[in-house]
Specification:
It comes from Atlantibacter hermannii NBRC 105704. The protein has 9 helices and 10 strands. The chain is an alpha+beta fold. The chain binds zinc ion (ZN).
Amino acid sequence: MVRRSMSPRLDFEAEAIYQYPEHLRPSLAELPRAPGVYVFHGESETLPLYIGKSINLRARVMSHLRTPGEAAMLRQARHITFTRTAGELGALLLEAQMIKAQQPLFNKRLRRNRQLCSLLISGSRPEVVYAKEVDFSHTPHLYGLFANRRAALEKLKNIADEQRLCHGLLGLEKLSAGRACFRAALKRCAGACCGMESVDDHNARLLESLSHLQVMCWPWRGPVAVKEQTDELIQYLVIDNWVWLGTVDNLDDAARLTRASPGFDHDGYKILCRPLIRAEHDIIDLSAT
Ligand SMILES: [Zn+2]
């Protein structure tokens, strides 16, 4: 029987390295099996080809061989650099920031969205409000983040269809005084417009359908530090209003990062909301110290 000299993982690695373009192999050797952000550089020193993140830089970069698009990118690549982070959150935040700032050739284009809006449901009827006008990180009763007004109203209509809600009460259709809405006659509205159900019941069904889309207000009074640790590396991500202010190795240095200006950071919110609300990390409230 032949004894295998290497573990399956090393076999895989050896093969992956062998298949990799030769000029990139020295860069591969330096990549750690740790979280971070990696950059494929081409001829240009200023415009990178591709920026990505992983909890295992070495494995991820080696897997960039799978598609024709990736092969094209590898052919143009001259070398690979990386920045280690202490965890996945730090890698996600750094990746988003770097892609936004450097717009690499092979990353999907991230367009700034000036139309970002949400449904404000606190008064008698839903209202579309814009992130450029209302502070989404401190306004309660917001549901959903939409690319534009049309997408927000589309969502509202879909829920109305599913829940037989009244287009009149939702503000999607004008109601004439004393008359049921158009869809009530078709039995598509459960009849909150004509006393068939109470307005409270109607609104409760609306909120229930939207509850999973609720935009969470920033729950702390000021900035917090989120601790991440892998092996010997400890980092604190300083965050305020869902905005990443920076990363420090030492909590004493957190104070020099200034507070976030009001405004809503959609990328930061998408990356940070769930892990912070679920308290998956050690979170230090910096305004309490
Ligand atoms: Zn109706």
